[in-house]
Every structure is written in structure tokens, then in C-alpha cells.
Amino acid sequence: VGSGTATHAGMTWRILEQRNGHVYVGxxxxxxxxxxxxxxxxxxxxxxxxxxxxxxxxGVTPNFYAGWARGSVAATVAVRGSQLTSxxxxxxxxxxxxxxxxxxxxxxxxxxxxxxxxxxxxxxxxNGQLPANTRFWVQISDQQANPWN
Length: 149
Description:
Largest sheet: 7 strands, mixed
Distance between the termini: 13 Å
Structural class: mainly beta
Order of helices and strands: EEEEHEEEEE
Radius of gyration: 14 Å
Number of strands: 9
Oligomer: single chain
């Protein structure tokens, strides 16, 4: 598990749409999934995800850029990116905030295609309600765009 202070810029997402108990979260013009877009000194909520294999809701047609996350999202209280010293620390923050199985949402959590077997990116739909006009820390597993990088 990480120790010390994270200093790398982290990637952030925002709410793209909310309706009927479902939320579409993802990248916008600020998001940089390659090197991060928000300094580690910033305080933002962590976007957390619990995968429950929930079915795709009516009105959502998953695709590469707008997949279905197969569960629910929630946001932690705002934390400084510098506190996110590893994925394990971020996942632990989600679990301690919301319960077992919750973890930090990841850039590629959206699924689409037959039986949701294809992995997308950039945005996803999930069950839940999130605070409006807020950016969220989201991790990415295959780029150097997390505070702990």
C-alpha cells in the first residue's frame, strides 16, 4: 500500500447526464487520461463503483464511449489527490465509505456488446445519483494519469 504523498496530476471526470436514478459519467474537455488533468493538491470526491451485474436500464444503449458499468456509483467526501498514494488506498477509501466490494471507478469500467463482453472507455452509465457540478477522481489502469503515478 502506498505511503507518503502523491504528487502526480490525476485524471478527473464529471457528470454528463443524470436521469431516472441513473448517471452517465465521463470525460470532457478538461479530462486528460494520458498525463492527468488536475493537480494532486486539489480536493475532489473519488468516484466509487460497486459492480452488481445489474441489467442495462431501459433507455441506455451501451457502446464503446458510453458503456454500462454493471452496478452503482457513489462519491466520497472530497479528498486531496495527494492522499491517493495507490490504487489500493483509493479502493480502500471507497470500501470504508460505502462497504465491501466498492472500489475506485476506472476509465475502462463501461461494457457493451453481446452480454456486455466488450470493454469501452471515456465514459459509462451506472445506477446512482451524484452531486451536480462536481469533478471526480477516476483512475486509469493503462496510463500514467493517477495521483500515485
